[in-house]
Design brief:
By secondary structure, this protein is α+β, with helices and mostly antiparallel strands. Helix content is about 40%, strand content about 20%. It has a domain of about 140 residues: Nucleotidyltransferase, domain 5 (2-Layer Sandwich).
Length: about 600
């Protein structure tokens, strides 16, 4: 796809990437997807109170300028011609909300992170108005009602920040997710800034009609938001504008994508049926459904995978969003002072390798004739179940009022047991999403395909953890050795715009080496563990309902001791129904054939 106009690495594409933790700029070779130069800076997370998460938009823009300049200089140091950079792409964490004054270019408030829970009061009020129907707007948006989407954050800002309300009244306010904020600044800001977004980021606002792929006036009316503050919606692959300052002056911005959709594309999951899991502080599991737009009946998000051009067909996805995954481990480490580093904690490694309470699978590090106390505790760790619903549960439950819970504590519980339960919780949450995928695609032939999940993200770098999650879920995990799947995804989108990359070329030339992890556990054992998890989630959803607690605990204990109890209890009722039906048939027969 590259011709002789460029150097030995072919045409280059720069990617401006803002995640939940870092701001970075990467320069890719479109010839083989190699990252030639990059620079990143850690973002400052602003937390005023529990559940709140903010970023300074001005700081993000300043960091991005520094990242661009440093990566550009690094390219020069490597004696690679920076004039080979033919385009820039933008990829960002979806849902993070920014409002700014279009006349001054100054933010009206800090950017509110996607997982920020401050808009719960707005969500609660809206749910009361729609009789607690969390799927009230799903037919238009593909989304449940949840405070993680931008519409709720805008509403909160309008009600809580006077500067926002005043700016909207004076028609000075612009809204955007982080892609819009970067795009507007890169293309000139106050002087000539382009106010646009892409279809994947627009979808996550809960204001875009998924069928028309445009802003929906009725949705804006429902949320009581002004439609004139919203950016123009465009595809993932087209010229959004041109960089008007800095070392990339005049370079077109040719691709924009939300982070998770970009991961799906960057992991080369471009066919219907392929799925990807990205495990960072949060966790997202996406299933590519091709051009088929599936409405979920099982708590998933119907979203956009990609649209590679204004006239190109839109590919859709089903998505499960998990709010607390890696962040649960961070909580254990920072709040409870537990050592959660797997590679530096032999007890945790042993705990992960000894799969949950099955004495026949105790780690080889424990002699079969000398099971010490430490190994015994590891073998019983299944007694601990942790549900990390710190500020509610997302897919597939979408319950803002759920709260975290730990079940099974005893005097023998250790820090390693709690750590294991945290990692186990991530595996179970992913498993629930994958099972929801199956229920939402009943016409797909699941029986003929072996369950495979493409795995990535910061926490996927730990081999022990990936194997453990494979054991928990019973799925084969493939871990491509791709440094930044989201960056690669938007690079492909920008490359399509510039005519230097195609999906066929990317599939052939960008496929990296892949590590494969197969489950080593039995279905029966996984089923027992999942039943315990499912029970814990139900307690988590009804954590403030004390009336039936003791009865529920007793029932669960009985089921654990006797899994066939429910079947036997149903036998008398079944016999009664059968005999009653037989008596009715006999009565009708005697009525039609009286005895003489």
């Amino acid at each position: 796809m590259n011709n002789g106009r460029y150097g030995r690495f072919g045409a280059l594409i720069g990617i401006a990437y803002v995640s939940g933790t870092h701001c970075k700029f990467l320069i890719y070779s479109t010839k083989n997807a190699e990252v030639l130069a990059y620079h990143e800076l850690k973002l400052r997370q602003i937390v005023h109170q529990a559940g709140w998460l903010e970023y300074d938009p001005s700081e993000i823009w300043k960091y991005m300028q520094e990242c661009i300049e440093t990566a550009y200089k690094n390219l020069v140091i490597l004696e690679i011609d920076p004039h080979d950079i033919i385009a820039v792409g933008i990829v960002n964490q979806r849902g993070t909300t920014v409002l700014w004054n279009k006349q001054t270019g100054q933010p009206l408030y800090n950017a509110i992170g996607w997982s920020d829970s401050r808009s719960t009061s707005v969500l609660r009020r809206i749910l009361q108005n729609v009789k607690q129907n969390v799927d009230y707007v799903r037919h238009r948006t593909g989304l449940p009602l949840s405070g993680c989407f931008s519409a709720f954050k805008i509403r909160w800002l309008m009600e809580s920040v006077p500067a926002v309300a005043d700016s909207i009244k004076e028609d000075k306010c612009l809204f955007g997710t982080l892609d819009s904020w970067l795009l507007w600044n890169l293309t000139g800001g106050v002087q000539a800034g382009v106010h646009s977004t892409d279809i994947t980021n627009a979808h996550y606002t809960s204001l875009m009609n998924l069928s028309s792929q445009q802003w929906d006036a009725k949705l804006c009316q429902f949320f009581k938001l002004p439609i004139n503050i919203l950016p123009r919606i465009r595809s993932n692959s087209e010229i959004f504008g041109y960089v008007l300052d800095g070392p990339l002056l005049g370079v077109p911005i040719a691709g924009v994508m939300g982070e998770q959709s970009a991961c799906l594309l960057g992991q080369l999951c471009i066919k219907a049926g392929q799925n990807v899991c990205t495990l960072d502080d949060s966790c997202f599991v996406l299933l590519n459904t091709g051009t088929e737009k599936l409405e979920s009946d099982n708590g998933l998000i119907t979203g956009v995978a990609h649209q590679l051009g204004p006239r190109a067909a839109t590919n859709y996805s089903l998505e499960g969003a998990i709010s607390n995954a890696g962040s649960t481990v961070t909580w254990l480490r920072e709040k409870l002072r537990i050592n959660t580093e797997i590679n530096s904690n032999d007890n945790v490694v042993e705990s992960l390798n000894t799969f949950i309470g099955d004495s026949s699978m105790i780690s080889s590090s424990c002699s079969s004739s000398m099971l010490n106390t430490e190994c015994g505790l590891a073998a019983k760790r299944s007694e601990i179940t942790l549900v990390p619903a710190f500020h509610g549960l997302y897919a597939p439950y979408w319950r803002y009022d759920a709260r975290g819970i730990i079940l099974g504590l005893s005097s023998q519980t250790t820090a390693e047991n709690i750590t294991q339960a945290a990692y186990e919780a991530t595996g179970f949450q992913i498993y629930e999403v994958l099972e929801a995928f199956k229920r939402d695609t009943p016409n797909w032939d699941h029986a003929s395909t072996h369950p495979v999940l493409t795995f990535g993200g910061e926490y996927a770098e730990d081999t022990h953890l990936v194997q453990f999650i494979a054991d928990i879920m019973g799925y084969m995990l493939e871990r491509p050795q791709t440094a930044s799947p989201a960056g690669l995804g938007v690079m492909i989108a920008a490359g399509v715009t510039m005519g230097v990359v195609s999906l066929e070329y990317a599939t052939k030339m960008y496929a990296p080496p892949t590590d494969v992890f197969s489950p080593t556990t039995t279905p029966n054992r996984r089923e027992v563990l999942y039943r315990r998890w499912d029970y814990a989630v139900k307690r988590c959803l009804h954590w403030n309902n004390f009336e039936t607690y003791e009865a529920d605990i007793e029932l669960f204990s009985q089921r654990e001791r006797d899994p066939n109890q429910a079947i036997r209890r149903s036998i008398p009722g079944s016999v009664f129904m059968v005999t009653s039906f037989a008596v009715l048939l006999l009565a009708r027969y005697l009525h039609n054939h009286p005895l003489t």
